[in-house]
Amino acid sequence: MNEKIDFAPSAIAVHPLTGDIYLIGTVGKLLLIYSSEGQLKNIQRLEGKYFIQPEGLCITVNGDIYISNEGTIKNKSWYPPNLGRVKKII
């Protein structure tokens, strides 16, 4: 089954231990993982409550993966508007 997925890349990084290529996109809120040969290995939806607008991607030398995002959480008096976040995912 070929399902159409809306995706517009906002960041790319190469995993230093595996050589896999990681892409994230604000449009579609997805993380795509490709092998170093370009084969699609995995598609992971990024949960909207944590990733309002995923924009940045970093993979440390030991393989930890961080995604940064910007955006506003509306109607939350305890949360400053337009505050960006960085979340470790692996």
Order of helices and strands: EEEEEEE
Please indicate the count of domains: 1
Mean pLDDT: 84
Number of helices: 0
Rg over CA atoms, rounded to whole Å, is 14 Å
Alpha-carbon distance between the two ends = 29 Å
- Name the helicity range: under 10%
Q: How would you write the strand order of the largest sheet? A: 1-2-3-4
The shape is flat
Give the DSSP E fraction (strand runs of 2 or more residues): 35-45%
Assign the structural class, choosing from mainly alpha, mainly beta, alpha/beta, alpha+beta, or little secondary structure: mainly beta
Low-confidence stretches: none
Number of strands: 7
Largest sheet: number of strands, sense, barrel closure: 4 strands, antiparallel
Reconstruct the topology from this structure:
Blueprint: E1 8-14, E2 21-27, E3 30-34, E4 40-45, E5 54-59, E6 65-69, E7 85-88
Antiparallel strand pairs: 1-2, 2-3, 3-4, 5-6, 6-7
